[in-house]
Design the sequence.
């Protein structure tokens, strides 16, 4: 009796399972290149995160500074009723907006 290959197995490679599961060997140059690329990507991500964090902090500081200036203007003119309704000092008029 003659043994033949089934039609469904004609294009399959049973030994490919063993070659696919083997770990590929890298040369030292490939390993160094991969490490360099990984470090560069990590540094770029850190720089981007630092830039984003600085932008957020800058906007928060700007808001706090403007609030402080506004509160200073309110305190400066709070004891002077003659300046409270004056159009010359708009910070004094804004005091009712915050309350």
Sequence:
């Amino acid at each position: 009796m003659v043994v033949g290959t089934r039609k469904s197995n004609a294009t399959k490679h049973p030994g490919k399972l063993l070659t696919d599961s083997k770990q590929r060997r890298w040369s030292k140059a490939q390993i160094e290149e991969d490490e360099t690329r990984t470090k560069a990507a990590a540094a770029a991500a850190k720089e981007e995160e630092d830039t984003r964090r600085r932008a957020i902090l800058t906007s928060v500081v700007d808001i706090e500074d403007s609030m402080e200036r506004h509160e200073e203007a309110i305190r400066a003119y709070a004891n002077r009723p003659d300046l409270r309704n004056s159009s010359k000092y708009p910070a004094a008029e804004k005091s009712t907006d915050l309350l």
